[in-house]
UniProtKB/TrEMBL annotation:
Domain DRTGG: from-to ranges: 5-104
SUPFAM superfamilies for the chain: HprK N-terminal domain-like
Tree of life domain: Bacteria
Pfam families membership: DRTGG (PF07085)
The protein's name in its UniProt record: DRTGG domain-containing protein
Organism (species): Orenia marismortui
Taxonomic lineage from the root: Bacteria, Bacillati, Bacillota, Clostridia, Halanaerobiales
Amino acid sequence: MKIKDIINKLDLEVIVEGDLTIEVKGGYASDLLSNVMAQSKAGDLWLTIQGHQNIVAIAQLIELSGIIVTEDFAIDEDTIKKAEECEINILQSKLSTYEIAGKLYELGIK
């Protein structure tokens, strides 16, 4: 499923728009950056409450399809600027990580 379809189905707010036609291959939920680096895969959509610049670096390194910042946590301005430069999709939801993960699973993102 393309990231733009997930945005529409889950009513996500687009904070930084990269390539919204990217195919999401899976998902990974964690706030521990070392776990994300070790366990996520290229094409995954990452769910986190983190909003600092390191999330962009990890998304770029792993070639993630994007990041969803859950629970309406704040995203640093520097993070937004860096994501724009790197064309990394950053999305936001008021829902918890648990709720978003469940909804993604229901959409077939596993």
